């Protein structure tokens, strides 16, 4: 159901790769809610071509930008401001990649070039985006920025590898820049900590099926889908959440505050009984 919560608002969506991407679902929901959009992704991702379909549905131009390249980001914001004939009201940062994860390198044997690259793409890029917007005065007063994160920033999930450290940095940048942008222009910046979700980036994590199953059984409401994450992002871009900033907001069906669930206990008890036999 659409409520026209974003009627008249303009936004930039980073990170829609294919239909499974969380950013893809956010773009669709923002479009349904009346927003005008600009879509962006790394040039190499755009070559895969799927984003064209999204761009047609949302009637949104696609502007390539590698989030680690300041020239690309400056060009993106300038072109977006030309397109909208003014500033933007919201930004979704839905970007993440770890080369150590991709190459199956264990956390304790991390390659530091890969680690630097991963931190730049997954975390420092939020600073780069915000700094570019700040310099160009590209975000309108009471604008809203959301970056996607995962609970491995707070608690250990061994196979999440150095993405856990990248997410901790991302959340910290959201807080720190949230202060400065709040003072300057009442722009709010938050991170949304989403349930494990079957996407290209998600499925790259070792043992991902186990992650999803465990989280499903540990969450009173079950895992949140990408579409539900998009609903939540819409509320954060809307005027209904104007005083929410510098927060890490869990969107995980209650996983983050559940110590143990009956479903997990029952599984463990069954296993223990079998072992006794
Ligand atoms: P995805 O693979 O669809 O999206 C990741 C995006 O990052 C892709 O569109 C990719 O092209 C883009 N990207 C990578 N390097 C880039 C660069 N240098 N410049 C510009 N863009 C670049 O996967 P998903 O899951 O939708 O990921 C979106 C965000 O959600 C990520 O930050 C991820 O860590 C986060 N997240 C995902 C969860 C999951 O289980 N899938 C759970 C919690 C958070």
Automatic annotation (TrEMBL):
Record-level GO BP terms: fatty acid biosynthetic process
InterPro entries in alphabetical order: Enoyl-ACP_Rdtase_NADH (IPR014358), NAD(P)-bd_dom_sf (IPR036291), SDR_fam (IPR002347)
Residues passing through the membrane, by range: none
Catalytic activity: a 2,3-saturated acyl-[ACP] + NAD(+) = a (2E)-enoyl-[ACP] + NADH + H(+)
Biological or metabolic pathway of the protein: Lipid metabolism; fatty acid biosynthesis
GO molecular function, one term: enoyl-[acyl-carrier-protein] reductase (NADH) activity
Alphabetical list of Pfam families matching this protein: adh_short_C2
Keywords: Fatty acid biosynthesis, Fatty acid metabolism, Lipid biosynthesis, Lipid metabolism, NAD, Oxidoreductase
Source organism, top-level taxon: Bacteria
Gene3D superfamilies membership: NAD(P)-binding Rossmann-like Domain
Similarity-based family: Belongs to the short-chain dehydrogenases/reductases (SDR) family. FabI subfamily.
Protein name as it appears in the record: Enoyl-[acyl-carrier-protein] reductase [NADH]
Higher taxonomy: Bacteria, Pseudomonadati, Bacteroidota, Chitinophagia, Chitinophagales
């Amino acid at each position: 159901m659409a409520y026209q919560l974003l009627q008249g608002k303009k936004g930039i969506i980073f990170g829609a790769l294919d239909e499974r991407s969380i950013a893809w679902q956010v773009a669709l929901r923002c479009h349904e809610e009346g927003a005008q959009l600009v879509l962006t992704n790394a040039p190499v991702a755009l070559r895969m071509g799927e984003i064209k379909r999204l761009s047609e549905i949302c009637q949104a131009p696609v502007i390539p930008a590698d989030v680690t390249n300041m020239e690309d980001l400056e060009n993106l914001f300038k072109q977006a401001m030309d397109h909208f004939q003014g500033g933007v009201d919201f930004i979704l940062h839905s970007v993440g990649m770890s080369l150590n994860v991709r190459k199956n390198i264990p956390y304790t044997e991390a390659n530091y070039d890969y680690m630097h690259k991963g931190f730049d793409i997954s975390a420092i890029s939020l600073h780069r985006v915000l700094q570019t917007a700040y310099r160009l005065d590209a975000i309108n007063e009471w604008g809203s920025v959301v970056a996607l994160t995962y609970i491995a920033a707070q608690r250990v999930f061994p196979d999440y590898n150095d993405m856990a450290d990248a997410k901790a940095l991302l959340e910290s940048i959201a807080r720190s820049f949230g202060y400065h942008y709040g003072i300057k222009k009442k722009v709010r910046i938050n991170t949304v900590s989403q349930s494990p979700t079957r996407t290209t980036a998600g499925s790259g994590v070792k043992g991902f099926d186990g992650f999803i199953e465990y989280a499903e059984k540990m969450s009173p409401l079950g895992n949140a889908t990408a579409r539900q994450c998009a609903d939540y992002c819409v509320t954060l871009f809307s005027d209904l959440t104007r005083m929410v900033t510098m927060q890490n907001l869990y969107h995980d069906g209650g996983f983050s505050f559940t110590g143990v669930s009956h479903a997990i206990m029952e599984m463990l008890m069954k296993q223990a009984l079998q072992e006794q036999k």
